[in-house]
Amino acid sequence: MITAGARKRKFVNLPMLMRIIGLLLLIEAALMIFPLAAEFIYRDGSLWGFIISMGITLGMGIFLVRLKPQSHEMGRREAILLTSLTWIILSAFGMIPFLISRSPMSVTDAFFEAINDFTTTGGSYFPPIEETGHSLLLWRSVMRWLGGMGIILFTLAVAPMLNNSGGIFLFNAEITGITHDKLRPRISSTARGLWIVYTLLTFALIGLLALSDMDIFSAIYESMSVISTSGFTTLNVQGDMFNGYYLKIVLIIFMFLGGVNFSLIYKAFTGHFRNVRVNTVLRWYVIFIFAAYILLTVNVVINGLAKHVDDVTIDPLFQVVGTISSTGISEPDFAQWGALSTIVLVILMFTGACSGSTSGGAKIDRIIVLLKFLKNEFFKMMHPNNVTAVTINGRSVKLSLVQKILAFLCLYMIVIFISGTLLVILGVSLRESFFYTLSAISNTGIGTDTIGIGQGFASLPDTAKWILSIVMLTGRLELYTVLLVLTPYFWQK
Predict the structure, then answer these.
(1) Cα–Cα distance between 211 and 479 in angstroms, integer?
(2) Widest distance between CA atoms in the chain
């Protein structure tokens, strides 16, 4: 409960924020046990790297947790600032293993990799597993899995005391979408429910992948990547991994589920199937996938690339679902599919999947509202006296929310324009600049090498990587949470 004192408070409760961040650093240090265990099994030469990283992270966590704030109250400003700081600080400590590994990365590349992982963007340029080592790869998958559902949501699940100290503000600051479903009376219970669903889906995918000829490490790694829609693969050549209909079908199903609102999946788990049947956003999600699939299939046929039945059946569907869910796994031959396929891919990257999922993009919910609003505006031009409302799931959307969505989409485009322009100034080609920016803000992580116009993220200058790191974080937290901190209104007393 937020008290009147909290509402009137004229300062940001930084000691309280630092203490929560300390708790998260302790959790991050504890999670490094998993790559340490992998190191003992596979002997990749990163033992001391992870021991030192764990020690540094643990030490800072203990220091911050021992802080004693005068007040434990948290308002909207603290929640917004905490959300942004958490993702940055955990990425900063998460990059330490990359700095002191057997093949150390620069600070720029290490932070770029860490923010890639936590935001589940997937724009990585790591070498193949033979060169990287199992422990580092597992650490990347742990960060991606944690970031998929949300660091703050995880905090709410394991720290119930935040129910009475700005928990609802934290929940709203991180969860994507135009509306946020509170599944249970307490925010911590809602967070735990979502994480339980997320974990069960992860284990289900591990089991299904293990039924193939995939080894258990790859099954775990791929499962954590797919369910978090980050799209990394343990193999250098994707075509080798995805041979056979079984793996492709399994991955399509779980990439699709990764793009569905997890609140809706939770309701399905608890027997509320009617919520699934009548959900407008889910229906549009399927329609978008089907329409894009038809376009890609037709384009493959027109370009004379249909040399096998897979080219007009499962491969286009795999590409569509992988892109709209922002998983970012692409078919090896996609660069040969022609300009129309690239346009479809760009549209899917911009649109994204459903709000409340692990996917990126502007979200289908907002696109639906925009299209329905435009339809109503055209209708009112001919019938000015008629009152029409935008409806989602049978309920009217308030005009204030419509305005907020329109402002969001405009801001989304502005961020893409500014970031793309900055990359052009840095010497990146015009086409590559805006494709990289869209890939980063949508957390899709598809590089220009996928569409045959560049060499991927590794070729970018360091300044461009820092810019894209900010863009990735902005896209993951949906603009307002990050950008609001940069405005004078946020800091006004």
Answers:
(1) 40
(2) 74
